[in-house]
Queue: 4 jobs
Job 1
Amino acid sequence: MSALSYPTELIICPSVEVEVYGEAITPECKPEPNAINLATQGIAEQSSHYARKGEPNLAIDGKRNGTYNEGSCSHTEIDYPAWWRVNLKATYSISTVVIYNRQDCCDHRLMGAEIRVGDSPDVSTHIKCGTIEGTYPGSIHTICCHGLKGQFVSVVIPDQSQYLTLCEVEVYGEAVIPECKPALNAINIAKQGTADQSSYYSYLGSPSHAIDGNRNGIFGKGSCTHTQKDTPSWWRVNLKATYAVSAVVVYNREDCCDNILMGAEIRVGDLRDVSKQVK
């Protein structure tokens, strides 16, 4: 039976329990329920500062208050062009940008503003994903960026001298993960495991030191493992469950002997015998 994609009313006889399963249908260009506003983790800048109350970070403070004097809107001088941008600190595939206009006055100033995305701080190099074409006091503008990728999202008023005031900017999308780089906020599952190794050099080189969360590369500081000269030398961690392993990050020692790790193989398997694990 095909999935129903329109509101449906279920009429059934009295029952002890009814369970309904499916996936939400998200209207085009509307942030999904519980989507994370990426802008709040960023750093905002703008072409100029009108006053202390109009600092650029006020447009990403999580407050949608549209009254400028209540201190939650950004504000530039009359610039040509006036611009505001947020550095998201990583590259994202941007799906939606939501702009909240001021509601006390001057809503028309946002007319013609362009929402842009790019990987450079230079807003003139950003790619336009939408334009604000109509305003009213307190207007909310949802702009579809259709997966444009960039670290910066900007709002620019082109081809005229104008103030730029933004009472909130929300940015939604997904992190662009470079090949074999752990996802943002990924959990290091090694820390929940149990470590072993082929032999013990000394108590300072305990196998558990490689999963203690301490990346200190000085052996004498007690956060590195160390075996004897074994054939082969090996270290392993038991994750206590089966995982689809996407990335393994290994930190070498920094005080000496970094060449010892040359040629080391990273292997994964369901058997304790490291010789039977897959490289």
Note: Strands lie at 43-46, 74-75, 82-100, 114-118, 127-131, 140-157, 165-166, 168-175, 194-197, 235-238.
Job 2
Amino acid sequence: MGGGESTPADPPKIHFGQPWRDVKTVYLKNYTFLNSYKPGHPDVKNLRILLHGPVGAGKSSFINSVQSALRDRVAISAQTDAIATGCSFTRKYETYEIKKDDGSYFSFIFNDIMGLEEKTDMGVKVEDVKLALNGHVSKGYQFKSDLEIQENDKYYNSSPTLNDKVHVLVSVIPAGSVSILSDGVVKKMREVRLAASEMGIPQLAILTKIDEACPEVNTNMDKVYGSIYLKELVDKFSVLLGISPNCIFLVRNYHEEIDTNDDMNALILTAVKQMIYFGEDFVDKL
């Protein structure tokens, strides 16, 4: 045997710690809340939630995942692209309502937009996002990378009502991309956030694709908020974009499953419930 000194083994890395947010027991409670929710303001028929973020962030997939969680079956209404092209698959300003089993609709809607890109002449124009926040962009508008919507466009709403305006802005980012977001995308997202802040619109963020960023949660989906690595990503993103950690939520979108999962549903509906709370506070002040 050799006479050299033995090197002590590295201590095992602790991947999961004390959960910093409890969502395991709230799936049915959140569903009940969302199912019965009605906006308190008489001029608001549906609470409007606008999703924005870089290309491939999972905005459309999140809308599908919310629908799946609420209908307890995998559902697809927002079209997505499984091939990473680097260009936004969503080109139009889309509005999504979610239908209940009885034929009525949930009282909140999602707006999906073209993704943000690094270059100034690619992706959705920041000015278009600002106009959408104020309700000036109508469903069906085809985004242009080189020109914002014009006042003479048939999709330009010159006299938006409170119901047309956005009530909650949600930043959507893939968890694994937090550390590598380009300066150009971050600048655009902060510009949109600043515009929303000036309008008084509340803001949240969701980190998607948590299973890709932290594969361990695939078999520990109920321990997502105990992941030390995911908590580090939340804190990094908070500093990067200036969103408080208690306004950042972790989700895994449905993309390969054919059945719903209670743990995934709990993550998704927890985020949506908070969007509703923030949006309701906003319209209540008006």
Note: The domain at 42-285 is CATH 3.40.50.300 (Rossmann fold).
Job 3
Amino acid sequence: MASAVKELQKDLEEVKVLLEKATRKRVRDTLIAEKSKIETEVKNKTQQKSPRKAELDNEKPAAVVAPITTGYTVKISNYGWDQSDKFVKIYITLTGVQHVPTENVQVHFTERSFDLLVKNLNGKNYSMIVNNLLKPISVEGSSKKVKTDTVIILCRKKAENTRWDYLTQVEKKCKEKEKPSYDTETDPSEGLMNVLKKIYEDGDDDMKRTINKAWVQSRENQAKGETEF
């Protein structure tokens, strides 16, 4: 019995090594399935104790193979999102996430935030925290779904049938700062100057030289026109 368990544990270690090196999805899925199968075999064989052994162990539960210890936590920065009348949906791609236990995928909601933690996925933890959501959400009505290679966060809108132009308040402020001023109640030339200023600040050296040249030429033409008049 001990010899069989030992051989299975060697197989398990080799599968783990191959899993760390594999990059192709099909190969990784096959290795993950094989790893789960071997772990189950090890667990079953370890639990096959004689009555005398169980008595000596004072009815302690049979030893099980310890899960892979996680090395570090990866911060999730890439995601996509869309919305319906009732929900804002955030899509996070995590290869193989459908194979981890349900309790390893945890999401905590507040009225203006959520944080996702996926534990022990291929030896790593994955974390995503989103604060300052654009609008309030219903904590009780929000949830998560695990699909193939994807976690979907479902934030229930507190006010249904309202549109979210951005996911967070921070994103909204950043986007609004980038917009040039087109105030129709002010001098139209002032709005143009704001646009040119924005282009100048964001442009490379060639762009800045071109704008400077055009500005000088415009001033010269303006001065020439005033002289002729």
Note: The helical segments are 2-21, 25-47, 51-56, 169-178, 188-202, 205-228.
Job 4
Amino acid sequence: MPSNIEIKARVTDDSALKERAKIESGSEPTILEQEDIFFHVPNGRLKLRKNKGATSKLIAYERDDTVEAKRSDFNLANVTEPDALVAVLTRSLGVKGIVKKKRELYLVGQTRIHVDDVEGLGTFMELEVMMKDGQSQAEGVAIANDLMKKLHVQESDLVDKAYLDFLLEKQTS
């Protein structure tokens, strides 16, 4: 099963973070507009990611909600008819929530740096170290922690929740 090591943090100075990410990656970012539709499921999370101008994906994943670097195990499938699949999944599972974001994607080795402008929440940064076969979790965590330092991300900025969880909390408060 594919996996990655993730870190997520709030961003206070997005222009400085983007400049550091650009330096680390050696290139301009790829700009993505995404809508993640989450469904009620008994285990983990299930979302349909609609990518403007690109292939949509159905993604199932499990990940602990902690502030430190954490492992995420996932499966994904390309979706050619996202609206039809949303209708089917909504009817059978129900929608838990929707996250809309504009993402700037930078690639550094085996790590994806995401600078996300999340509708209703603000700006966040995610690191996803895409694990290689046979690579230990400790190696992935070390890569994530090293890049976090290079990007000047402070431990006090780390968050332990998914964007959806923050949005759901906002709705209930």
Note: The domain at 3-172 is CATH 2.40.320.10 (Hypothetical Protein Pfu-838710-001).
